[in-house]
Amino acid sequence: MTAAKDQKAPQKPLPFQWQFVAGAVAGVSEIVTMYPLDVVKTRFQLQVGTGGADHYNSMGDCIKKIIKNEGFGTLYRGIIPPIMVEAPKRATKFAANEQYTILFRSLFGADINKQGLAIMTGVSAGITEAFLVVPFELVKIRLQDKANSGKYNGSMDALRKIVKAEGPLALYNGLEATLWRHAMWNGGYFGCIQGVKNAIPEAETPNGNLARNFVAGAIGGTFATMLNTPFDVVKTRIQNQAKGGVQKYNWTLPGVATVYREEGFRALYKGFTPKVMRLGPGGGILLVVFDTVSSLIRKHILLEN
């Protein structure tokens, strides 16, 4: 019985439009729940040196100072760009992962190591996703920086002022760093999920499978965050550099080396705690919501058994 279960053929991927819907619902659910931690992460990543009244000593200290000095709403400052891109971004993540799975199975044969396949498809999906998100990430980073609090009145104002002052191509500053960040995260996320699912037997009940998916997604999100945080730190700093100023960070690997040389290894993991607290559970939320919405679509719209 178990052997038959293990050998059953994988489900046929959903049509792209329904992958888009499932990915969009999953992404928006995750970002609305976890966004304040993203603001805190960005503040830590932009923080250089120590000391001063505005210095953040811990995640709790950062949240407390933001609310006290800037208001509770600041924890959601810059959320419009990620909300706008969240539907196509998460849809691209899951849909591209499924499509690359089909492609690589065809190229390399269905017997390819499952975890190796998951890593390859994850990296490819991450690279695809990165091209989509760069302008939205740049606007979000500028809005989240405390130094820009009086400079922009909102997302559209920030977009207009960036294009006017720096040119439209400035919206793609940090593309190379974003490619690194998303390739590392998606490769680690999907590869780790496959490894955890291989280690944990499929549950006998729907709730058991939801728990299994959440555990796999949370472990995958945590591991992926450990892999990609140094690239995320550099990406944040690249995208926060306005044209005309000193461009200290230009390329990812030299940027990682600069941060390490000037601030030490720990600086490469600035913002790690709020980031992993968001993307660990967030990875579980993503996988559970995506799988749940996909199952509902199969059952009630596509009428699959």
UniProtKB/TrEMBL annotation:
PROSITE patterns: SOLCAR. It comes from Podila verticillata NRRL 6337. Keywords: Membrane, Mitochondrion, Mitochondrion inner membrane, Repeat, Transmembrane, Transmembrane helix, Transport. This is Mitochondrial 2-oxodicarboxylate carrier 2. It is a multi-pass membrane protein. Belongs to the mitochondrial carrier (TC 2.A.29) family. It is found in: Mitochondrion inner membrane. Transmembrane segments: none annotated. One of its GO terms (biological process) is transmembrane transport. One of its GO terms (cellular component) is mitochondrial inner membrane. It holds the Pfam family Mito_carr. Solcar repeats lie at residues 14-103, 113-199, 208-296. It comes from the Eukaryota.
